[in-house]
Amino acid sequence: MFKKFNIINDFIFTIPNYELNKPINIFGQCGNYLSCAEIDNIVDFFPYGGIRQEWIVEKDNNEDVFYIKTAFERYNRTQYLGCPNKDNQVYLYTSKNNYTKWFISHIHNNHYLIKYAGEKFDKGQVELIIARYNENVEWTLAYNDIVTLYNKGSGLTNGLDTIINLPNVGREGHTYLHHIIKNYDSLVSRTIFSQGYPFEHNITFLFGVDNYDKLDDIQPLGLVWLESRNIPTVEYRVKYETITGYGLVFLRAFCDGNLIISEFNDDGINLLNENAKKDYPEYRDINLALGFLHRAKFPSLISLSGINYSSAKSLDKIYFTYSALFSVVRDKILRYKKEVYENLSNELLSKNNQGGTNGYVLERLWLYIFE
């Protein structure tokens, strides 16, 4: 059985060939190699050496601190040792930031003191909201102190402190709205919203979480719907994606009132428009040229615009981010009364308890709502 790396239990390490910026082995007091899991962000000790047991120590040029990363690039690019949760458990994170700093001091011979020098998570500053059905959410353990996970699928006992079970209705949109409504008067400074497994939609998603203090007030965190389906096309993504200096790559896409992007064809959105005609037959023959959102008049969208603006927002150009991955600060949420979110939630379930057409529409409306 592997022993996880906890900074309470392991302070003195043996490093036979200590050198900066070179692959090295680090041994714990148990004599085993410091190691990392193949997929999850767990850091542990392993009796045999290999690529997963090699580390690179980097020194910060401006501070007397060090960063310790895996010597190979992992699938979700989490490489740096960090210990930001109060339980002092060490996990892997994405980048050099406030949660991956370490002190390293030489004791004698090949023995070194390695001590955490970073900050701890503060749930008053940032909260990570996870909308889970049956996805593997082991990755969230590295963010235990700031995660609130809403579970709509099978039972979940993975060790997270905050798991809230909800009925399986309304997809992730219902989960997000439920959180806003229930916590309207106690929202934290910034909330990050995510589906259960965001990496298929943005492999760099965790760069945004680890560097949340660098995000915009309303921050898109999606990049693609599915790369394997080429949605959006590579050409569109390259043309409009933003590459940040801290590792996050995101796409702020835009569509018309039909949710259609003119630069490529999306059969899924075409089908959505056809389904909208069935959901809203009363609008089927009204001004068809204006498109689905105009035709169906998504009621909560009308409500939001009417209540909070002197004139309704334009529906001709809607900015969105794929797969409902985004972050927003408290002030932007509180621009609207709680009733607005209650209206949205009611409308979401008005045609189908899974959200139906409205669920897919809402997935693309979050930036529009808050901006």
Low-confidence stretches: 285-300, 305-311
Write down the overall mean pLDDT: 88
Order of helices and strands: EEEEEEEEEEEEEHEHEHEEEHHHEEHHHH
So how many helices?
10
- How are the strands of the biggest sheet laid out side by side? 13-12-11-14-20-15
Main β sheet profile: 6 strands, mixed
SS-derived structural category: alpha+beta
Distance between the termini: 50 Å
Overall spatial form: elongated
Helical fraction equals 10-25%
Number of domains: 2
Radius of gyration, taken over Cα atoms and rounded to an integer in Å: 23 Å
Number of strands: 20
Residues in β-strands, percent = 15-25%
Describe the structure.
- The chain is α+β, with helices and mostly antiparallel strands.
- The protein has two domains: 3-116, Trefoil (Acidic Fibroblast Growth Factor, subunit A); 126-370, no CATH class.
- 22% of the residues lie in helices and 22% in strands.
- It is built from ten helices and 20 strands.
- The chain has helices at 171-182, 205-210, 234-240, 267-279, 292-297, 299-308, 330-333, 338-348, 356-363, 366-370; strands at 3-4, 12-14, 33-36, 43-46, 55-59, 66-70, 80-82, 91-93, 102-108, 111-116, 126-132, 147-151, 163-165, 190-195, 218-220, 241-243, 249-251, 253-255, 318-320, 326-329.
- The protein has a six-stranded mixed beta sheet with strand order 13-12-11-14-20-15. It has a three-stranded antiparallel beta sheet with strand order 1-4-3, with no helix packed on it. Strands 2-10-9 form a three-stranded antiparallel beta sheet, with no helix packed on it.
- A hairpin with a 6-residue loop joins strand 3 and strand 4.
- Helix 1 runs antiparallel to helix 8.
- The model is unreliable at 285-300 and 305-311 (pLDDT under 50).
